[in-house]
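Q:
My hope is that you can spare some time for a protein that puzzles me. I hope you can help me see how the letters and the C-alpha cells relate. Thank you; the sequence and its C-alpha cells follow:
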Amino acid sequence: MSGYGMLMTTLPDKPQAAAMAKYLLAMRLAACVQLVPVERHYVWKGETQEAGEYLLLVKTRAGLYEEAIAAIKARHPYETPEIVAGDFTAGFAGYFRWVDDVTK
C-alpha cells in the first residue's frame, strides 16, 4: 500500500512527547502516535552523550509528511531534531482506510 507511512522523532521526556502527540492528532497530521521510552547514545558537538528520551512513532499519510515535519520542527526543543520518515510497503487495507478517515 503506497501513500502511507510513519514519521519518527524523539523528545526528552514524556510530557513533551505527549504534548507533541496530542498536537499532531489535533491538527489531523497523524492518525496514531505511539510513545516509547528509549535510551539514546550519540555524539553531539564532539562529545559522546547518553540520556533517556521518548521515541514517537507517528502513523500518517505520506502526503502529510512535509506538513507534519514542519509542525514537529516548529515545536521541537532540540537544536537538530531527528525527524525521519519511512513508507509502508504493505498492510491491512482497513487500517489505511482508518488513517484516511482521521487525517486531513
Q: What stands out?
A: The chain is about 35% helix and 40% strand. The radius of gyration is 14 Å. The chain has a mean pLDDT of 97. Residues 14-26 form the longest helix (13 residues).
